[in-house]
Amino acid sequence: MNNLGDRLSYLREKKGWTKTHVAKKLGIKTMSTYANWEYNLRQPDNEMLIKIAGLYEVSVDYLLTGEVDEKVTGKEMISKAERDIAKRMDELREDLTSATGLLFDGEPMSDEARESLLEAMEFGVRLAKKNNKKFIPKKFRDKEE
After folding, report:
1. What pTM was computed for the model?
2. 99 vs 90, 96, 143, CA distance in Å?
3. Helix, strand, or coil here: 108?
């Protein structure tokens, strides 16, 4: 297995999955996008590499190099990001709940408005995490950009 496509094919076949099944699990609209990665016609972006690593429970390093890193798997990276987001959202929820005299558009903030604000903030945090490339090892960042 000399390249990413070979490793993707191997991992998929090891699970007994079809390309269509994998594409659906990754949230890809067409199977051909995933197939192009296996055929080495295209490369997934950094965000997708993290998703793929999580799906197959391997590290991004393994996907890119074939070298097994027993310390960190893609699943662990994703769960760490999810824990970080959950922790930050809990802190924000506590701040908004405990704030006295909190106003929204000049009126006291209702519970519904507070929840809507928190949902919007969570979306923003998730988007920032998605765009943050800190989960990709430095030696691979330039290759994928």
Report:
1. 0.50
2. 14, 5, 46
3. strand
